[in-house]
């Protein structure tokens, strides 16, 4: 009876607004409540008290037996140890080691004596170490098999072996760069540049055909991911804003690059416009990691700014690839004038038609209840993208293929979401993220390896640098100027404009395409020089804009965006998996949620108190 009518029984609580408990929405920790001060106040364990008094008295007696100098030396030793630990935790070595470590949700098994051999935090946990060893062993097995089948090309010194070494080194370089605020692709690009100019790789000759096909595979993965990450509901609501902010600044930069390179680099109009179609694309590979770091602090999530930036980046990439395909088809075709005139409408309509058809086919094939629906849908979408890119090139309508890839992925995603799949937890998107993890170091490694510093024209580098920065500044100004009526203030408009200045993925994939086309058709030396200039200009744009864009996004985000107060309850569409995705940037950070857990509104606490008071069961406050 006392437990029912005691101090902790809310049915007899005189003040209904008294804060009794606090709930947390963290599923992994369970409900968290503050323990009442009077909880079990009448059931104090006397044995525990006596034990505590005996332990304290024993400690005091032992302390009295020590001399004053011994006690003072012990205190000084503990103080120095604490200072050393604090100094260690503030050092850059400790910070670097902690950034290299991988956090796991479940405890990791370790062999006996592992901590003695590999102490924390200087060495990784055994699980991370074992994963690295397994990857190395798998790589050795694959290389041994390739050497037995292929022969000298896979042997040390062969071009296939050099490509494999370049890919592994590029991945490691990307990891080192990711420890800073820069995107991984910068490290991959620099590794390729280093390997080429110190003579460690040679991917010229017949092997250029292999690297050209690998770029097309990477392009299919890039465009498929762009289509899968587009939210049809959000696009339908703000399609006017997305199209306005996506196409108008893109068109301005496209035309400006064409005009500047025509007059300052003496490029013919067709070549300069083709270069403009490549340079005007935006790189989500640079933007997304930076936005993710800002999201963890709550910046910009209230107005959906990350969603807007990603959607516009996808529109820009699709427009760039489509226009590039149309221009390159006109430039490198050997057909008549009528065929060239028909390029633009046929490429646009053909790409749209194929994309809608293939996306519609992926809705019914395979059947949605199939046990292997995820891998089959993944292969269907990937195979359809490869068919679109390689098939359109075969029939000399290169512009239709990339457009078909984007719309096939977007159409299929719309149908799958209608069947119950979550856009933010699409398992096919997970598969293409794994594909991109494999092809990203390949793409940027071979792109960096195509630069030979000794062959660069200093005049082109100087003029190209000026053209790139002028176009970036003009694009930012145009974006800020046309972003009226979009519920963004001036600071947010500036940040959105800065986010679209980075170049990387499309430039790396399309930059060398013209050079490959010229070489395959045995064009003149002048056209080969122009194709080399286009390739070097694209790589220069990556080097100049990607690091600067990442730094500006990280620095200006905290200054220009409004910080949203974290919410206790997760918003609608909370991600249930830990898969990294573009949509991760729209979720409130959990760490700040834990820090702010005490600041919940009084109304919520009063409601919880009232509901508990009305309960007929015994109320017990637990910790």
TrEMBL record:
Residue intervals passing through the bilayer: 129-150, 162-182, 238-265, 271-292, 304-331, 337-360, 372-391, 403-422, 434-453, 459-482, 534-555
GO CC field: membrane
Chain intervals for the UniProt region annotation (Disordered): 1-34, 602-623
Keyword list, A-Z: Membrane, Transmembrane, Transmembrane helix
InterPro entries per the UniProt record, alphabetical: Cation/H_exchanger_TM, CPA1_transporter, Na+/solute_symporter_sf
Gene Ontology biological process terms, A to Z: proton transmembrane transport
Statement: the UniProt record of this protein carries the keyword Membrane: yes
Tree of life domain: Eukaryota
Organism the protein comes from: Aedes albopictus (Asian tiger mosquito)
Polar residues: bias regions: 606-623
Cell compartment(s), UniProt: Membrane
Pfam families: Na_H_Exchanger
Protein name: Putative na + /h + hydrogen antiporter 1 isoform a
Record GO terms (molecular function): antiporter activity
Topology within the bilayer: Multi-pass membrane protein
